[in-house]
Specification:
This protein is an alpha+beta fold and 276 residues long. The chain has 2 domains: 131 residues, Jelly Rolls, CATH 2.60.120.10; 78 residues, Arc Repressor Mutant, subunit A (Orthogonal Bundle). The chain is 34% helix and 20% strand. The strands form 4 sheets. Strands 3-10-5-8 form a 4-stranded antiparallel β-sheet. Strands 4-9-6-7 form a 4-stranded antiparallel β-sheet. Helix 3 crosses helix 4 and helix 5 packs across helix 6. The radius of gyration is 20 Å and the shape is elongated. The protein starts with 17 loop residues before the first strand and ends in a 17-residue tail after the last helix. GO terms for molecular function: DNA binding; DNA-binding transcription factor activity. Keywords: DNA-binding, Transcription, Transcription regulation. This is Crp/Fnr family transcriptional regulator. Pfam families: cNMP_binding (PF00027), HTH_Crp_2 (PF13545).
């Protein structure tokens, strides 16, 4: 199997394994301040508004529509028209693309992040669907108001440009994984995305807590739940995965990384089902 270079860091903002000069490190999620017993109705914590005069931010907030979404609600429909930009102030959302007969998770976004800016900029149909993974609160604003704000505040426009570059890199990584890695390798990559250091484990070990659902891993890896079950079982047999009461433990992260480039090769106890 040809070896493909892959990125296993998370681009969605939450802590994840990513290579650094001193080994593996955690990247923190940037969270907006919460007010007790009150729904969040401010965009102050968003990076887009750093350095912006309070009066300008408050004027922008007044032009927003604040909505609360139930878990499972469709916030943005795939191929839909509309230039609204959504700022996630509470909860989590899942961004999915259609790949053949399956939905593939492109990103998961949370408080302090926005979605929908691409269609607001180019006026085209939505390329992805966005659903609420949990109860979610958003602030939505029209494309004209959003673009006027960016034109008035070049530093904010630069932030959006960087965000769009991130989206392109995400899409490139997803295409590379789907075309260059088989299902077991993609599952390994997804496990590493979810992995965290700590928990009393040695430096080359990691944990995934709480235990992820097989269906969630399958959607992220663009495969079936059955393939996830088989692959996890194979990893247990290889000594690369251990299930505790409330977590997965990855005893040897480096070995798991190497496995992503050799997933087509026979294992000592048989083969990993490709499950493409």
């Amino acid at each position: 199997m040809s070896q493909a270079r892959i990125s296993i860091g998370s681009s969605s903002g939450y802590s994840a394994f990513e290579p650094g000069g001193g080994g593996w490190m955690n990247r923190p999620l940037r969270m907006p301040a919460r007010r007790a017993n009150r729904p969040i109705s401010s965009l102050e914590a968003f990076e887009l508004f750093e350095g912006i005069e309070e009066a300008d931010r408050l004027a922008f907030e007044r032009d927003c529509v604040w909505r609360d979404w139930k878990k499972g609600s469709t916030i943005i429909g795939r191929d839909s028209l509309g230039g609204l930009v959504y700022f996630v102030v509470a909860g989590r959302c899942r961004v999915t693309l259609r790949a053949g007969r399956r939905d593939v998770v492109l990103d998961e976004i949370g408080p302090g992040e926005m979605v929908g800016e691409i269609s607001a900029i180019d006026g085209e149909r939505r390329s992805a669907a966005v659903t609420a993974s949990t109860a979610t609160r958003t602030a939505e604003v029209g494309a004209d108001r959003f673009m006027a704000f960016l034109l008035r505040h070049p530093p904010a426009a630069l932030i959006v440009m960087r965000r769009l570059a991130q989206v392109i890199r995400q899409a490139d990584a997803a295409i590379l994984e789907l075309s260059g890695l088989n299902a077991p390798a993609r599952i390994c990559v997804e496990l590493m995305r979810r992995a965290r250091v700590g928990g009393g484990l040695p430096p080359n070990a990691a944990q995934i807590s709480p235990l992820p659902k097989h269906a969630d891993i399958a959607m992220r890896a663009a495969t079936t739940r059955e393939t996830v079950v088989r692959t996890l079982s194979d990893l247990v047999q290889r000594g690369l995965l251990r299930r505790d009461t409330d977590r997965f433990v990855l005893p040897d992260v480096e070995a798991l990384i190497r496995l992503t480039t050799t997933a087509d090769e026979p294992s000592p106890g048989g083969t990993i089902d490709d499950g493409k």
